[in-house]
Here is the input.
Amino acid sequence: MDSSSSDAAGGQALEKIFSTSRNECPEPLKAQVQGHLPPWLQGTLLRNGPGMHSVGETAYNHWFDGLALLHSFTIKDGDVHYRSKYLRSDTYNCNMEANRIVISEFGTMAYPDPCKSIFSKAASYLSHAIPDFTDNCLINIIKCGEDFYATTETNYIRKIDPKTLETLEKVDYTKYVAVNLATSHPHYDSAGNTLNMGTSIGDKGKTKYMIFRIPSTNPDKEKKKSCVKYAEVLCTIPSHGLLSPSYYHSFGMSENYIIFLEQPFKLDILKLATAYFRGVNWASCISFNEGEKTWIHIVDKRTKKAVSTKFYTDSMVVYHHVNAYEEDNHVVFDVIAYKDNSLYDLFYMANLKHDFEEKNVLTSVPFCKRFVIPLQHDKKAEVGTNLIKLPSTTAKATKEKDDSIYCQPEILCEGIELPRINYDYNGKNYRYIFAARVEWRPIPTQIVKFDLLTKKMLRWAEEHCWPAEPVFVPSPNATEEDDGVILSVIVSTDSKKAPFLLILDGKTFTELARASVNVDMHLDLHGMFIPDGK
Here is the structure.
């Protein structure tokens, strides 16, 4: 087979990974383990992602629209068992009943919607500005108190049973905090409380961002209510654009501060309110305004107020924060940044169908950037002065004429995405980033460990293998940051190779074991490891 034929075959196999709807595997299936699992590794890797891309004769336009398919690898006493199950959301149930897509997603507008009256939908659009969004929670798994939830970026989350993958209670954030959209990447503080951010689109254009906290325990011991029902708003930040709030996928958190990037990747509320009637999808209501500032908001968790100084940087798009910490009256935070929003467009199904000879390639390469915010600086410093006093970074924070501060990042590395860390070091000075490596295509081809001190990178890769986000699991009583294992779910375009759970040594990045399962596995997005007893 010549190279062009090989590339075409590879492209067709890769297209299958993204476009084929998967069958669920609701009963545990024993995996074939090669190598040796650490005896201390006991628990469940629970993952989430799109698994069904068509219903009946209808198909989703965008890969991120697919119906949520949960799957898990349960590790116990050297054995690994796999199972998967579709999230039984209202969206899923309505689509299955109609045998076609009837609930709209961000990249796919569906008509009509028999589950809801078009008249009530119209009333909702006109009186509340935004529609009733989907509960197809396909992005991540989060923990609130003792409960686990599948999440997306709307106001809905779905409680699940992490053992059976059964879909349980539907929770609407808006009943407890006034957010219409919320991130799928919350943070957890030392007390186990869950902190998250959402956008509140109020009357008369009073759009604002809200930071809210969900307690780790139910304050009312006599009632078995979800901890989400006791959520409280910690701080609100007014939007720079009253009818065009920033899109954001995550935020940063150090010990005492929340870091929020209000980027010029904006949602047009007026367009959103009329999208259904104009026959366009919601994604078309989001646009990147090149040349506009990215505002950096620093919120003090102790005072529940934003730092008054105005910090900003150049226009960029950030989906994932890596970590943040404080050092000598500075806040240091690392992000994965793009020059524009072109990444989202690459995941439209029409673009993913291009084979290796086509041009569905990254035009905006992700860079891992470090920003440093001087919390206490000389107010009398001259214009143009670099206010950063840390010798460990080349990042700059320059005083402007209006007393605002222009922040220029240090470039740490390029070509990584889906960053994870040892979460025991979240909010602390740290050394290692575990991530997926992306090159000319938007799809990960490697797993990497990046050393922030030496700037060296360890890699794992295997031909025809496509890894998911790596998850770091620390070993018991670990004394070093990288003492533990990396878990990643691997799918393959080689028909002779079954998908598998990969286990790497956190220090050396050598393979310890893999657990192969003969199922048609989907490529997932995010998730977490749940140790036994947690």
User: Anything to note?
Assistant: The chain is about 10% helix and 40% strand. The mean pLDDT is 90. Helices lie at 3-19, 90-98, 118-128, 269-278, 342-346, 349-352.
